[in-house]
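User: I'm curious whether this sequence folds into something compact or stays loose and floppy. Could you predict its structure so I can see for myself?
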Amino acid sequence: MLAQLTNVSLSFPDKKVLQDVSFTVYPGDRISLVGPNGAGKTSLFKILTGRLNPDAGAVSRAGGVRIGHLEQDLSDSASGHELTCMEAALEPFAGLIRLEKRLEEIAVKLGREGHASVLMEELGEAQRRFEDSGGYSFRARTEATLTGLGLPESLWDREVSGLSAGQRMRLALARILLEEHDLVLFDEPTNHLDVPAREWLEGHLKNSKVAYMVASHDRRFLDAVSEKVAHLDRANLSLYTGDYTAFRGQVERAEEEGWRRYEKSRKQERKLRRQAQDYRAWSEAGERAKRGAADKGFVSHRAAKVMKRSLVARRRMEEAAENARAEKPFEGDEIKIGFGPSRGRGLIRAEDLTIGYSPERPLAAGISFDLSAGERLAVTGPNGSGKTALLRTVLGEVQPLSGGAGVSPTARVGYFDQDHRLPARDVTALEILRGTGDETLARTVLGRMGVRRETVSKPASRLSSGERAKVLLTRLVLGDNDLLVLDEPTNHLDIETQDVLLGALEGFPGGVLFVSHDRHFVDALATKTLRLGIT
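Assistant: Here's the prediction. I'll summarize afterward.
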């Protein structure tokens, strides 16, 4: 056992997060932690590390256990910004670097003083410790890890303060992987990773002997790295064996069985209630017979006995009907969006397009494609290959370096960018959506997207990044658009919300041009794909 929770409960002022959760992590475990945004996954990780105390229950950790934690928030990520990227990545090997310097000092002394026995003995001992601790491979491991996570050699000498937020997150992930741990808790490790980096991380984790728990909304990644799934939902945690796809299958079968039990119980309940009504009718008939036979004692006595038996039987039937009632399985509100027809077929045309922000450094060249109503084009490629630049060039925000691209002048365009720009900071989420028409439908879609009821009345300035993304996506889906241009629409969305968005976009009659690193989302939505490579 590495860590264990026993009957742990946690509440915040506005919600219950965990209720009597019991859970054990063993050496070698490979666990995916899944659940809707806000379910309490980050809180569970903090409880496991000891940074958050539960309201009730016990937390146990093995003596001397080393727990690493990759957080979504970089504010606590350790290294000083005055270090270079490589210096920060090498910090886990500070002891080896000191030993390496000592070896160099001994070698210099030996060169000056000759082969003194004391120095030779110290050198031999230092070399053994250096080799046993991986001293001859730690630099190569560090370089391979940085490269695999999308931090190329050109960034290694750059100060951490000069890295982008995504690059700093990848650096924090690299450090966690290079440190010595018994258990690692990864909170959204695939954020800011392109597909090659995600695949590299999958391979690294599959070959690792370290136990880990991963919270991620990339189901393809979860399938690759997990052997168990811990599902956290409505304050309860359930453990399943298998990868994410196996978990979904088990949950769906359990839901189907739950509905079968519910429908069977409804039939049984109706049958028992009909029988109870029959007994009620018999008892009422007996009461009438009793009153009508006042001068015939034997009839009155018999009627009383029948009435008494029928009352007892009726109560039993009513109790049985109550006991037969099964709990109705949870179901979200069904969404039916009545899309209007798309106006026009041809929406985008690009011919021999070269894109970039300066002629000296083009990002991609020779791009040609058409997009018509009913088509959904996924733009894929590694970070830095020009995916966002292509979207902005097509929309006219950035001029092409050569060639041409444009949108049909009659097309109405909805654009979702990575900055989640809102129309105004003081309007509420609901006011942003009022222009889409059906307010009830807007509230329903927001609810299915995971936006809580009280959030719709918040000013836009107080919304989190994830809440802003969901409001904007809802506005685009419900708006009167012919073309949707979406840059990383699944960022900040949990898997359940991704499925809601996917279902809405699959029914959209216009065209969709989108960028995503989520392989399942791309495979499920795209009717064609354009892959960009670094020039």
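Summary: The first strand starts at residue 3 and ends at 12. The mean pLDDT is 86.
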